[in-house]
Amino acid sequence: MSTEVRHSMRKKHKRRTRRRLLVLIIVIALAAVAVFGIRSRIIKNRTLSITEPFSLDEALGQSDLSVFSLQSLEGKASDLVTSDSEVGSDLVTLQSDTERALLFNLDDKSAVYAHGIYDKIYPASLTKIMTALVCLDSVSMGMNVTMQEQDFEMDADAQESQLDAGDSLTMGDLLKLMLVYSANDAALAIARTVSGSTDAFVQKMNDKASELGMTGTHFVNPTGLHDDNHYTTPYDIYLMMNAANQYPEFSEYASAASMQVSVTGTQGTSSFTEDSTDEYLTGIYTLPQNVTIIASKTGTTDEAGSCLSLIVQNEYGVNYCAVVTGALDKDGLYGDMTQLLSLINS
Known about the structure:
Layout: H1 3-35, E1 41-43, E2 46-48, H2 56-60, E3 86-87, E4 100-105, E5 110-115, H3 127-138, E6 144-146, E7 168-170, H4 171-181, H5 184-195, H6 198-211, H7 234-244, H8 248-253, E8 258-265, E9 268-275, E10 292-301, E11 305-313, E12 319-327, H9 330-341
Antiparallel strand pairs: 1-2, 3-5, 4-5, 4-12, 6-7, 8-9, 10-11, 11-12
Helix pairs in contact: 3-5, 3-7, 4-5, 5-6
């Protein structure tokens, strides 16, 4: 047998050996996936998948079998709280049948309380949690933004800041203004700057909602001003609040009792201060003892009622997400939120 033929046979043998070895590695990897419970979790007919669909045949068909990996989806159900629609009904009595609420332990992934958490609701300015999340995903907080006339095109009674067209400020200050004071002009300016248009930004919001598993949500604007086709669920509010809270800037901005904004305008540089719309932070309502707010967002429209979403810590440093929506007034909102928060140190 010639040297050339023997060399060719050795090469073929090595390729077969490598192929068999890689097939064995793949089988072992898939077995490990099953053993360690990487799977989908089904929550009230919704499925949150945590592994990319994988085809063994497709992998074996690759020309270079050394290039191979199992891929993961961005949403990880194993890191989320799963819950029935109703949990702990004997723990809290809400003041109105229009209210929906939840209290989740974020550290041990358990539901302490849940009422109607998969029901369709209007989010009002809780929408701005998603606006902030897309903004933080997309741009630097140090970039400069100049306000335009279109940023103020909204209903006369909608919440606006003291900004004027032509004023310039950083994206970070604009985001603070939106989260602390719930300024709708700030939300519109963020959307325009990040995506070039409100419609393009809203598409990003819906794409992010889909990525997070927010199957009960549809956005049509970055502000939360009412539209019948703009809706969510309390559980989906938890999903986006949990995601936004992964950014240090979000928890820093969304826990401030007030903020000062520095603006460069036609008359030079000036500043103004706005107080938080969260009346726990401003001291109008009192938190239960040893409860600390890590991040907060309020929302109010006639259709949505009074709403509040919080990330809080108890006296032992355990993190919770609390959401109340659909309260008839602020007394009802803060009264029922206080009932929920009183559970976390009990």
